[in-house]
Amino acid sequence: MPRMGLDFTTVVSAAAVLADEKGMDGISLGELAQRLNVRTPSLYNHVDSLEALKQSIAIYGLNRLYEKLQVSADGLLGDAAVYVMSDAYVSFARNHPGLYDATFRAPVTSDPELHQAQQQVVELVAQTLQVYDLQGDHALHTIRGFRSILHGFASIESSGGFGLPLDLDVSFRMLVDTFLAGIHARVRE
């Protein structure tokens, strides 16, 4: 019998907080149960296994990232949308390092729910870049490039790879400026 007030969403949300604190490899059902003030077997009323929980955290993370990106760019077009979406992406990675990491570490990559969560992020970025009139494969290559810039910067920053005492926000802005300059140059061709 599930504990009163404890449901799947509560379990996954608590696991996401744990992931932010300890990383994906630091998650255990035992510690999660302690935090939720239940016995470990009680979690099995809501998740099938630790692997299933990690899968759910990945999907939860993608959905939270999507929401953050969508809210940030709502009503904006072109460069303004790209800048705020870029900032929102890196902000998400900074504020939710474990949850962000989870979005790339789903145990079952063929999961349709995972694909749907990934696809909604890609479609949002595609909508944002539509104003540049990118077509077909070129649009997809541009989306990949944009994602690579955002993920690359976020990953290097989270691992402490930027050791020089320079403002990271300035570096990031220059990177996005360069990306946009490339798009503008390509559109003029």
From TrEMBL:
Residue ranges of the annotated DNA-binding region, renumbered to this chain: 28-47
Domain HTH tetR-type: 5-65
UniProt entry keywords in alphabetical sequence: DNA-binding, Transcription, Transcription regulation
Molecular function per GO: DNA-binding transcription factor activity; transcription cis-regulatory region binding
InterPro entries associated with the record: Homeodomain-like_sf, HTH-type_TetR-like_transc_reg, HTH_TetR, MT1864/Rv1816-like_C, Tet_transcr_reg_TetR-rel_C_sf
KW tRNA-binding (keyword) present: no
Annotated Pfam families: TetR_C_33 (PF13305)
Protein name: TetR family transcriptional regulator
